Amino acid sequence: MPELSRGQQLALLQLADIADNSNGALEVLELAAESKSEGYVWVHLSLETKDYRTRNGLAFRDRERISLHVHPDFPFKKPDIYFKHTRFIGTPHVQWGSSICLYQSGETEYEPSDGMFGFFDRVEQWMRAAGKGELDPDDAPLHPPVAYTTSSTTFVVRADTPAGMADDGIWIGRADLRKVRGDRFDLVGWTKLDDWGDTDPGHPIAAAILFDKPLATEFPTKVNDLIELVENAGLSFGLLYSLLRLFSLVGSEEEPAYFVLGAPMRRKAAGEPLKPHLTVWEIGPDTLKTLRAMVRSKGEDEAARDELVKWMVKAGVRWCDVLEDRPEIVNRRDGGTLLAALSEKRVLLLGCGALGSAVAEMVLRSGAAKLHLVDYGIVKPGILVRQRYADSDIGSEKATALQAHLQAIGLECLVTVGKGNLANQALSRFDFKEWDLVIDATASASATHRIEEELKAQSLPIPMLSMSVSAAAENGSVLVKMPQYRGGPHHIARQAKLEALAKDAGHSLAKAFWPERETVTVFQPEPGCSAPTFIGSAADIDHHAAGLLNIGLSRIESLAPDAASLDLVAASWLRADDSKRRLSYTFKGYARHSEQRHGYAVLRSDVAALDMASELRRIARTRSDRVETGGLIFGEVDDAHQVIWVDSVSGPPPDSTATEMQFLCGTAGTKELNAFKSVASGKSSRFIGIWHTHPISRGRPSQDDLNAMLELLHFQEFPPRQVVMLIVGYAATRREENYYLYRRNEFVFIARHEEEDGGQQ
Amino acid sequence: MSSSRIGLALSGGGSRAIAFHLGCLRALHDRGILDKVAVLSGVSGGSVIAALYAYSDEPFEAFARRVEAALSRGMVWGIARETLLSFELPKIVVATILAGPAAVLARTLQLTGWLLSLVKLRPKWLVTIAEQILDFAPRFASFTTAFERHLVRCYFGDRRMDAVGRRELSVVINAAELRTETAFRYGSVESGCWRFGRLTDTPHVATAVAASAAFPAFLPALDHYLTFTKNGVETKHRVIVTDGGVYDNLGVSCMLPGRSSEFSTNVFPVDFIIACDAGQGMPSGARRPTFWMSRMLATVITIHRRTQTLTQSLLHRMAASGEIQGFLMPYLGQRDSALPVRPADLVSRDQVIDYPTNFNPMSKGNIEKLSKRGEQLTRCLVDTYAPEL
Q1: Which fold is adopted by the domain A6-132?
Q2: What Gene3D superfamilies has UniProt attached to this entry (chain B) (predicted)?
Q3: Partner residue facing B341 (CB), from A502, A621, A672
Q4: Is the pLDDT of residue A754 over 60?
Q5: CA dihedral angle for residue A261, residue A264, residue A270, residue A272, rounded to 10 degrees
Q6: Residue of B197 and A95 predicted with greater confidence
Q7: Interface confidence (ipTM) of the complex
Q8: What kind of architecture, by CATH, is found in domain A339-588?
Q9: What is the pTM of this model?
C-alpha cells in the first residue's frame, strides 16, 4: 500500500463515494504506487459502458477498464485518465493510444473544489459522446493531431499554405525558411517543385509534402510507421525516397534536413474549410550522410544501404516544435479591438516622448504597415523613469533610438525616422497620400500653433488624433479631427473649452484643463533654463497613452467625416468627485467667411447663425422684414492666426433704434450680457463688435455705420482696440454676411477718407 | 444636438398659463425649435393652447391671433351660453337631480354599513346596493360637458385626437382618473389609463381638453362609460376624469425616459425636454389657513408644490446622469435675480404673478405682459443653455 498524500486520500474517499452510489456502474479495483514519477498513484477502475454503446460510436465492451493517474497535489492538479488498452488508438481525443482527453482547457474547465465528482461528470459526458460517435462533431474546431516533440528545433509558420493545393492531389515542393537563430526557423514561403528553377534559393529550405486528406490523429513515433502512414495517404515509397535523397544534398553536411508534412486537419472556426495541420520531421546529419553515400554510389554502397534499412525499420521520428502564426488558422489575439483598425495602416507619429514612445509600440504591435517617427529631441537620463528608452540611448536622438527599439521587436512594420523641429514645420512636409493617420503626441503648444497655421493653407485629408496629459498626469485629453472638419487642433480645443464651460463648468475635469486662475506651477526637472514638463510615472503615462489611443480610435470609427471631438478622461485610480469620469464633446466646424479689410478668416458658429435667424424672424413678426435689426457679436479676434471667431450674437438691446433706414444699437443691459458671456466662456468669448442688417441692400457700411464705429472706438470710457462689424446684406431675402474689422488707430483716417468719397449705403 | 428628439410640455394654470405659453411658443418659433418638437404635451390651460396649435395647420401668426382672441373672450361666457341656450341645461338639471339624491342615499347606506361594522355586523349587500345606486346615476351632464360643447363650437369642432394638423407631431393631453387615481392621457396615438387599457374609440379633442381643464374646485369631472381594450380584451368601464394637474401639472410624465408601454399609455421618451411652467413660484407667506376650507386648500396646494419640486429635481438628475440630454424650464414664477442674464426690458415677476388661474376674459395689457415674460424667459434660457437646439 503506497503512502498517500492528503489530496490522494481525498480522491479515494470521493471515488468510493461515487462507486457506492453508482449501482455497480463504477468499481474501484486496485490502488498502485507509480514507479516512474514519485508521489503519483494509479487507481484502476472498472466502468460499465454498455449503455453508452451505439452503432455509430466507439465499440465499447460491457465494461471498460480505466486507470486514473492521481497527482499528490490532487485536487489542485487534475487527474489523468487512461484506457487499460489501446483498442481506441487513432480515435480523436484518445492520445498515446489510451489517454483520454477530457478537457480542452483544464485551466478553466476543471474545478478543484468539485474534485472527483466534477471529473466523473466529465468522464460520463465523454463516454456518452464517444459512444454516439460525436466526439469530434463537424461543427466544432478540430482537435489538432498530436506529434510528440523530440527535436529541440522550433519552427514558426508565418506563411499560409499554397492556395488550391488540395484540388490536385498531394502537393510536393519546398518550404522556404529563414533561420532566426540556431534552433529556430521561420517558414516564410512555399514553392512548388515545378517552380524551383535552377538557381540556388539563397536561404535554407525544407521538403514539403501537403496531403489532400487527413492523416492519423496521432503521428507515428517510428520511421517505418511514418513511411506506412504516408504510403497509405497516397505518397509512394519511391517518391518519398527520391525526396529524401534530394534533400540530403541540399543543405550543409553538418545540419539536419527537415520535412514539412501537412494534412487538412485544422480549421479556424466551426464550419470553415479544413486547412493543413503542419508537422516538421527532422532527419539527422548521420542519416543524411548515409543517404548521400547512396546517391553518390548510385545505390551500390552496401554498408550505406544496410545502415539506411536499419534506420527505416528501427529509428524513431524526431518531430520538431511547430508554432503556428499562419493567418489562415490563427486568430489574431487583438482581432476586433480598436487598435486592430490600425492593421496595415500607415501612421505618422509626431513626438517620441512619454506618450509618443508608448503609443509607437502599440501602433507597431497592431500590425501597422508603416510608422514614421518625428522628434528632434535627444534622450536624457531623467526620462528613463517613464519613456521607453535604454541607458545606452542617452545622448542619441530619440526618434532614431525608438526606431531601433521598435525594429528589435521584429514585426513586419516599416519604421522610418524624421528629424526637425515641429514648431517650424509640422505637417506640411508630408505627402498625405502616403499616410492614413496622424497621431500628435507632442503636447506642445508651439507645434499645435504650427499645425493650425499649416492647415489654413492646406487641408488634411486623413484623421488626426492629438493627445496630452494634465500637469500631474492625472487627467488625459484626446482630440480627434476628421478629414473634412475645417480647422486644426487649436480650433478644436477652443470649441471644446466653450462647450465644456457651458455644459460642465463645475466638473473637476473642466476645471483641471481650464482653471479659473492659472495655478499650475511649472515643473522643471533640471532647474534653470530647461524645458518644463510634468510629473508622472511610467504607470501613469502608459495608462493614459493606452486609454487615450483607444478613445481616439473609437472616435475615428464613429465620427462623421466633418466632425471633431475632444475627450477628457480622469485616471481611474483618482478619488471620484464627479459621477462622470470622462467628458466627451463632439462638434461640427464653424462656417468660414473672409473679413474684407484685413483678410482675416472669419469662423462663424452655427449658433450665431441661429441667433441671427431667430432675430430676423422676431423683427419680421413684430415689425416687418424691411426693418433693420442687429445686436452684439461675441467671440474672439485672434491676431496671431488672423482669425475672427464669431461664437454667438445677441438681439438688439431694448434701447436700440430700428427703422427701415437705420439701426442704432443701444447699450441697455450690454455690460451685464458681456460680463456673463466672458465668465461663461472662461474669457474666450466676449464682445468683439456689432452686427446689423440691410434688409434689401448689400452689406456695405453706410456713413451711419462708420459713425457708429467711430463712436465705439473713440468716444466711450473704455474703448476696445478693434471692433468687428458684421452687416447682413439682403437680410430679407438671400442674406450675405459681410465682415469688417476696424482698428482704433486706423479708423480716424479711414472715416475721413470714406467721408471724402461720399460714403455709401 | 440638432438631431435631438424634443418634447414640449405646457403646464396648467388657466388663462394665465395660456398667455404665458403663447410667449414661450413665440420664442421657440423664432428660434425654429417649435417646428422640431416631436412630442407636445399639455395640462389643463396648457392643453387648451397645445390643442389649438396642434390641431390646425395655420401659420404661427394666425395661431397666435386666435389664442389672443380666445384669451380676450375667456371661456366663462362660452360655458354659460352653452348651459343656458341649449339642451344642456335640462340635462344638467336631470343629471344633478338623479345624481344628487342618489349620492345622498348611497352615502347614507355606506354610513349605516360603517356604523354596523362597529358592532361587528357588516352586511355585504349594503355595500353592493350603495355602489349600484352610485353607478345608476353618473353625472352625464354638467358644466364640464357645457365646456366641452363650447370647445366644440368655437375651437375644435368634431376633430378627433388622431387628426393632428402639424407634421410628425405627437400630442398628449393629460387628465387624471379619480376612480383608479391614475393618469388618464388622451393622445394622438392612443388614449386611456394603464388600469383600464386603451380607449377603443378615438376621443374628440374637445372632450380631451375639457377633461384636462376641469379644475376640480370649479368644474365637475367628466363622468361617463367608455370602452377600453386591454390585452386584447374589450371592457366597458365608468371613468371619472378630471384636471390633469391633479396628477402632473407640468405634463412631462409622458416624455420621461425609462417608462414602459406595458404599464403606461402614451410613452414618448425624448432627449430634450422643454417644460413651460406657469406656476406662481415662491409663495409670499400671506396665507393664513385657519379653518377647514382654507386648511384643505392649503394642504392640496402644498402637496401639489411638493410634487412639482420633485419633478424638477427628477429632471435635474436625469440631465446629470445623461438619461436626457438636458431640459429647459421657462417658469412664470422664476425669481428674476436668479436668471443667468436678465434682459434689460424684462417683464418682472411682480407684474404678472398675481393674475389668477381662471378662464375669465383677459385684458390686452395682461395678455401682453404674460406672453412677453414667457417669450423673454424662454429666449434667455435657450440662448444661455441650449443655443444649439
Answers
A1: Ubiquitin Conjugating Enzyme (3.10.110)
A2: Cytosolic phospholipase A2 catalytic domain (3.40.1090.10)
A3: A672
A4: no
A5: 120
A6: B197
A7: 0.88
A8: 3-Layer(aba) Sandwich (3.40)
A9: 0.82
